[in-house]
Structure formats: structure tokens, C-alpha cells
Amino acid sequence: MVVYPRLMANTKSAAKAARSSIKKKENNLFWKRRIKAILKSLNKTLETEGGNTDIIFEKQSAMQKVLDKAAKQNVLHKNKANRLKSRFAKKVAAHGATKSTSKSTKSSAKSTTTKGGDKADA
Predict the structure, then answer these.
(1) Which pLDDT belongs to residue 121?
(2) 14-95 in CATH: which number?
(3) How far is Cα 122 from Cα 116, in angstroms, rounded to an integer?
(4) pLDDT one-digit tens code per residue, 13-66
(5) Rounded to an integer, what distance in angstroms lies between the CA atom of residue 41 and that of residue 64?
(6) Are 96 and 56 within 8 A, CB to CB?
């Protein structure tokens, strides 16, 4: 493989842009490696862990956190991060790992208020 030397910048702003570009590239590679590692880890966990849902949910939560942070820093587009989270949520659900959360349901009677703050007749 032939590696070409970097050209010397002609202006101060071009030199600064080159330094900035290198820093951005390193940051992007850091996040992309991290994303790849967590996705591989979650896939491997789904393949190997039979009934241990706690580990699966921990890895899924970690994956969502990493994807959200990468999207926040514009390493990934937010829609791609959401798409990946959705796909892995479907894989976890298909795996049979359903998180049992007991949320108390409130009555669906909602009171409506008018602009003045008085309750409106429903």
C-alpha cells in the first residue's frame, strides 16, 4: 500500500483546519469502534445467553446509551441510531426476553381546563 505524505498547509487557517480534521477523525473513530464493539457484544450475548435476561437488558441499555451519545456528537445520524436501537429491541423481544414492569394504570378520566384556568364542562 502506498502512503502519500501530507502536504504542507499554505495558510494558518489551512493548518488549523488540518489539525481540527485530525482531532475530529480520531473522535469519530473512537465512537465508531465503541459502537461496533457494543453491537457485537449484544449479538454475542443474544446468541449465547439462554435465559439470562438481566445481562441482555444491561447490554441493550449500554448499547442505547452509546448510540445516543454518538448521535448527540454527530458521529451518527440520529435516525440511524434510532433504527439500530429499534432493530436490536426487536431481536431482544424475539429472543423471548420481555422485561416485566408492573406499572399502575391510572384512570383515563382527564379534566380539561380553559385558558383562564377554570375547569371546562365535559
Answers:
(1) 57
(2) 1.20.58.110
(3) 16
(4) 999 999 999 999 999 999 999 999 999 999 999 888 666 888 899 999 999 999
(5) 13
(6) no
